[in-house]
Amino acid sequence: MKTKQLSIVALTLATALTACNSGSKNQTPDGWVIKNEVKDIETIDLEQIAEAIEVIPIKSDEPIDEIRGISGNSNDFIACGGNRWQLFYHIKDGKLVDKLHAAGNGPNEYSQLLQFSYLPDENLFYGYDNRGQIMCFKTSPFKFETRFPLKTYAHSLFALGHNEMLMTALPPEDELKNVEKEQFGGNSVTVIKDSSVLYRFDGQNLTKLFCIAQGDDGPVFTRTSNGVLMSLMMPQHTIYRYVNGQAEKVLTIDYGEMKMPEPEMSVENVNGVMMINMVIKGDYSTGCYHPQLYGSTLAYWHFTVMNDKGRNCLAIASPERVRNYEVRIGGLNFEVNIDMVDNGVYTKIIQGDWESKINSNEELSPLGKRIIEAMKGNDYNPVILQFKLKTM
Q: Which residues partner with 144 through β-bridges?
C-alpha cells in the first residue's frame, strides 16, 4: 500500500511539472503570490521525484576538510573547508585540482573570506575579506589577480563577470543615518537600523538597485539560463530576477499563519562578554532557498518547524496549488537538503563517517547503497550527490 501511495504522489508531481514545461506560453503571472500554509508535508524518496541521479566520490591525494559551502556549477565549483573561512578547494570533474590557503596579512593574502563566489566560465574566484576588501584570484592554479577596497560592510556577493558582481551591503559609513543605542537586559547595544542595499559593483563604483529591509543579510543568489534569481526574506519572502543590469520583482511567498514570528531576545554576560540570545517559538516556515522557475511553476527549499520538529522541505508551487515534500533516501538517516543549484542541477555534498549515515531500522534503497559504497571507498573524503527534478 505504501508503494502504491508513493507512486500516486510521484505521478501527481510529474503531471504538475510536465504541465509547467510548455515553454514561453506559460510564464509566471505578474504579481504572483504563492500562498504556502505548509499544512501537510509529504515524505517522499528522492528516486520518486528525481532523474539523472549521480553519485560522485571526490578524488583527492590529500584529506579534504569539512565543507561549509560551495559556489560554481555542477561539475566545476569551489568549496570552503574548515571552520575559519580560510581554506578553499577547487573541485572539477569530481577531482580536487587545487587548494587556496592565503590566510595572512600580506598584500595578496586575506584574513577570512566571509562570502565568496566562483565564476567557472571566467576562471575567477571572488571573496569578501572581513577587513573590508574583495579579493580576486584566477583559477587554477590559484593566482592572486587584484583587490577592491570597499567603504561598507558586504552581506553577500555574487560574481557576474570580470570585475562585475552583485552584492548586498549597508550604505557607506558616511551615509548611515539610523544608528541607535538600545537596552537589552540592562546592557546598551549599538543597533544599525538602516536598510541594506542591493548593489551592482564594477570594481570601482557601487550602483544602487534597490533597498532591502533592515536586518536582512541579503538574497540567496541562483544562476539560471535567464539571468540570476534573488530570494529575499524580509519584509516578505520575495523573488527578484536580475538580467541585463535590471532587477525586477517576480513573485512573493506568503506563509500565512506559518510566518516566522519575531524572535524573543535576551542578553547575558558570560565572562565579561555580552551574549545576545534569540529564541523563536511556535510553528513556522521560513526561507526560499535555491529557487528554480519552470514556466509558471516554482521549485524551492524552505525550513519548517512543526510540533517542535524542524525539517528542510522542497516546495513545488504553481498558481493552482502548493505541495511540500520532506525528501529522503531509503535506509539513510539524513534529509536531502541542497548546497547549490545551477541551471536545474541540484548538488549536495555528503561527507563524514559512512556508518553514521545508515538508518539501522530500514533497508538500504538502491540509491542508499550507491552512496554508502561511494563513501566506503573514498577514505572519508566527500561524495557529490547530483540530480534534476523529473520532467524539468
A: 137
Instruction: Give the Å distances, CA to CA, from 379 to 66, 172, 307.
Output: 13, 47, 38
Give the tens place of pLDDT for each residue, 93-127.
999 999 999 999 888 999 999 999 999 999 999 99
Domain range spanning residue 157?
Answer: 2-389
Question: Residue 288 maps to which CATH number?
Answer: 2.130.10
DSSP assignments along 26-46, one per residue: SPPPTTEEEE------EEEEH
Domain count, the chain: 1
Which secondary-structure segment (H or E) carries 60?
none
Q: Which residue has the cell 565568496?
A: 116
Percent of the chain with pLDDT over 90: 63
Beta partners for 276?
267
Cβ atoms 335, 327 nearer than 8 A: yes
Cβ atoms of 167 and 133 within 8 Å: the answer is no
Burial class of residue 17 (count of CB atoms within 10 Å of its CB; 0-12, 13-18, 19+): buried
- Asked if omega into 263 is within 30° of 0 (cis), the reply is no
